Amino acid sequence: MEQRLRPADARSGVSYLEATQGDAGQRIDNYLVRELKGVPRSLIYRILRTGEVRVNGRRAKPDYRIVEGDRIRLPPMQREARSEVKQPSKSLRDFIASAVIYEDRELFVINKPPGVAVHGGSGLSFGVIEALRAVHPELKELELVHRLDRETSGCLLIAKRRSVLRELHALLRDRSMDKTYQALLCGRWPYGTKTIELPLKTNLKQGGERVVRVHAEGQEALSTFTPVQHFGKLASLMSVSIGTGRTHQIRVHASHAGYPIACDDKYGDRQKDAKLKEFGLHRMFLHAYSLSFTRRDSPAPFSITAPLPDDLQSVLEQLEQAYPAANRQRNSKARSAGGLKAP
């Protein structure tokens, strides 16, 4: 797409963008990342945080949503020469292409591998979206619908057109998209099905590390935990559905309840994790299992699942071998309630 970037003053280096109908509804941080080719993502986030980006004369926050006709003022920025802009490696492009589990004329669904970021930034040059754009250069409007943590695997939606992106974002805002995760929690979950509704606030620690805490001044966050299977007092396999999509939401809610996600290096319990590592668990056990929503002009809901990765499936199998079969029978109803395939 040809950029609509015009200098306002050649001496100052200030420039402006004008939003079109196709841009409406998109977050300004994502909009600028797409429009400002050759500008480092870290710089874009910095000028937003410091208030150097102005929309119609007012400072814009990173979560501001574009309106058709917006006039966006940008401070002077240095761009990389076009020839210097790097591309994702062939191995990453092939890896992401092989992770596509669904595609139609409007969207992709990726079974995101663990350890791969959804986008570049924070020391990473490329993620899923950059790799997919490199695989499909003919698709000029590819955008992430939502995000997953780097170590979280599973269903990731990517829109092919901005009109589809706006539609799916509206479903997320209206809580009309069902998202279910599989998580292994440390300890024996005692509550049955429990909804945790606690606000979350994101803080930046020294060095730029992002940490989320339960805080009265935070954003609304809603997570429902359903036990699927207990492994003695060591761990509990859970189905988790979320009504909101806050940063680290499931991880923080689980930790706040006293049953952190297994091998969560930020909010977890190292002593309990050490015991689970004996069963072959070496990364955070959190998987975006399923997505379901009703698409535009479609009478039937769209629903898709991503199988649990082999390494996490192997952990469950080893845990089952260590615990009596009667335990699995007692949890058959919980499996059904959680909507998960029995491991």
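The above is record 1. Record 2 follows with the same two-line structure.
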Amino acid sequence: MTTHLAKTARLAPKPYKIFRRLRATTPPQGEPFDVIVEISDAFPIEDTHDWACALRIVGLDREHQAEDGRAFFGVDPMQAIEHALFLAHAELELAIEKYGLEWADGGPYTPATLFRRPGEAGHQA
């Protein structure tokens, strides 16, 4: 079933930008696997004043492996991207409990630090 969000995501400019490269380290079944968070550039929605961007989290499940991902909307480009980042943060928090996550090149990944400012304790680049 194709949703409005998936249809809008197809309009997103490609290639998407990679925001995170992670590794699922303790999946309940099977071998460790890559988890890649990708977000498109924001783009205006035709015949509206709204903007959108697309988010894919490749590796977690079939929904996130969709070619175009899901669209997130905002009143401007920054808000659309902010909404996508917020959901990515929440999904990674759930994934860390289910699969265990680390940075692709090693070291623990803690999504709770995603929104801290550089220089604050526990900030991840």
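The chain has a mean pLDDT of 83.
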